[in-house]
Design goal:
The complex is a heterodimer of chains A (331) and B (101).
Chain A (H helix, E strand, L loop, with lengths): L5 E5 H15 L3 E5 L15 H9 E3 L4 H13 L3 E8 L7 H8 L2 H4 L9 E6 L13 H5 L5 E3 L4 H13 L4 E6 L6 E5 L11 E4 L4 E5 L3 H13 L5 E5 L2 E3 L3 H11 L1 E9 L4 H13 L3 E7 L8 H7 L3 H13 L6
Parallel strand pairs in A: 2-3, 2-4, 4-5, 5-7, 6-7, 10-11, 10-13, 13-14
Antiparallel strand pairs in A: 1-8, 6-12, 9-11
Helix pairs in contact in A: 1-7, 3-4, 8-12, 9-10
Chain B lengths: L1 E5 L9 E7 L6 E2 L4 E6 L4 E6 L3 E6 L6 E3 L3 E6 L18 E5 L1
Antiparallel strand pairs in B: 1-8, 2-4, 2-7, 3-6, 4-5, 5-9, 6-8
Classes of the chains: A alpha/beta (331), B mainly beta (101).
Chain lengths: 331, 101
């Protein structure tokens, strides 16, 4: 038995701690982004770092994401280990050229002589901020050869995946979520690392597997609570890394339950769920499967319409009931 | 009478928060408007002030502890002599005003 001490922390505190420890260990780790300096980060996830490490290593940037990502990728190629903070994931698209055409390709183009160990951290998800500040675009990035994409749902994973991302050969896109910042969870005094590419069974169950990530883990858990009241037992697999996908962990779960629900906040078309479902199907053969994701509509700034656009616990519970009523492969 | 001082709410997005600092100890008397405790959310500090007079009798969540909105942080009495009930037996809520800063 471990006697390790744990303390409860806010999600942002886990990120700040991972960054602070990495910066103390490795002088190559620097932070670039808007409001990352004295302000401490849009979600306080950089709190205390500017005071500790100064202007040289915690650099406030103008509202110019293409330049920020370009500087980050270039600095990484030149030997630093930058974290570039994009406040809203919607604006990562301004930095896609340096990230996708340069960062993701550098190792290949140079036969491994150059790498781009850069972490691009961005905040996804809908929380009342309208069409262009609410998107979850992680499936776009998971589709780029050369990028890794991680998406923690707990403070412990926010810490562990940040440590792993900063140590990786990169580039790594680190996707957090607006609705996770108010949450808290336990973090050990000496936390175990969270390897990139490893999913986790968040909630064991026997009737259906729900494969999901980020904030939707909480939606899945709320759905599972409702279904448990009716005797339906859900196993929730938190993907944690979206590329490379840990298909084995999801497939092992589906081999037990025989039914898979994929759940994401992004669009269904060419989404994470499609990829998970197909690859699990390749592993386990016959299974019942349904995908859940956002409606085919921009996320409204109207709170009622926003809620209607995204999967809610009742939607997940209803989908599980329909799936369990269907016979294998009839869907 | 003994009252429960609970985490006030609702506070947008907040389910649970952390006790930052108590501004008194068992036996401290508070007048209306006086700051009793500061609580910490993911991005703000919540100042909890007495709405009327009372005596802080017992702190159930010292600084650094976490508590959910609506749950009890401390026991407050009309005076400092009345015997304390078990922590979860204090029925009435102590009225507070709170500000999120």
């Amino acid at each position: 038995m471990s006697t390790e001490r744990v303390a409860k922390v806010f999600f942002a505190e886990a990120i700040a701690r991972a960054l602070g420890e990495a910066m103390a260990r490795d002088p190559r780790v620097v932070i670039l982004g808007q409001d990352v300096g004295r302000f401490g980060g849009p979600y306080r996830e950089f709190a205390g770092l500017h005071a500790r490490f100064g202007d040289e290593r915690v650099r406030d940037m103008p509202v110019a994401e293409a330049s920020m990502v370009g500087v980050g990728v270039g600095a990484a190629a030149a030997g630093l280990r930058p974290l570039v903070s994009i406040t809203y994931m919607d604006f990562v698209m301004l930095g896609l050229d340096p990230l996708v055409n340069y960062g993701a390709k550098l190792r290949y183009k140079t036969g491994g002589q150059l790498t781009a160990p850069v972490v691009v951290k961005c905040t996804a998800g809908a929380k009342g901020q309208g069409v262009a500040h609410s998107q979850s675009l992680e499936s776009w990035l998971a589709g780029v050869a050369g990028l890794k994409v991680v998406a923690p749902s707990t403070p412990a994973d926010a810490y562990g995946l940040m440590v792993a991302a900063l140590a990786d050969g990169g580039p790594v896109v680190y996707v957090d979520h607006k609705r996770l910042f108010p949450t808290a969870g336990e973090l050990a005094d000496a936390p175990a690392p969270v390897p990139i590419g490893r999913a986790i069974v968040r909630r064991p169950g026997r009737d259906v597997t729900i494969a999901t990530h980020s904030y939707m883990c909480r939606v899945a858990d709320a759905a599972a609570d409702r279904l448990a009241a009716d005797g339906i037992s859900c196993e929730i697999v938190d993907l944690r890394t979206l590329w490379p996908l840990d298909v084995a962990t999801v497939a092992a779960s589906v081999a037990r339950t025989g039914a898979l629900v994929t759940l994401e906040e992004g669009q269904l078309a060419c989404g994470i769920g499609s990829e998970v479902a197909f690859r699990v199907r390749e592993e386990v053969g016959r299974m019942r499967v349904v995908r859940l994701g956002a409606a085919r509509a921009p996320v409204s700034g109207n709170p009622r319409l926003e809620a209607a656009t995204l999967p809610r616990p009742d939607d997940v519970a209803a989908a599980v009931r329909r799936l369990l009523d269907a016979k294998a492969d009839e869907r | 009478m003994i009252y429960a001082l609970a985490v006030p709410g609702p506070i947008e997005d907040v389910e649970e928060l952390r006790v930052l600092q108590w501004h008194g100890e068992p036996g401290t008397r508070f007048a209306a408007g006086e700051l009793i405790v500061e609580l910490e959310t993911h991005k703000a500090v919540v100042e909890v002030r007495a709405s009327g007079p009372g005596v802080l009798r017992a702190i159930l969540c010292p600084a650094g502890d976490w508590q959910a909105v609506g749950r009890t942080l401390a026991l407050i009495g009309d005076d400092d002599a009345e015997p304390l009930p078990p922590p979860d037996a204090a029925g009435a809520r102590f009225d507070v005003a709170f500000e999120v800063t």
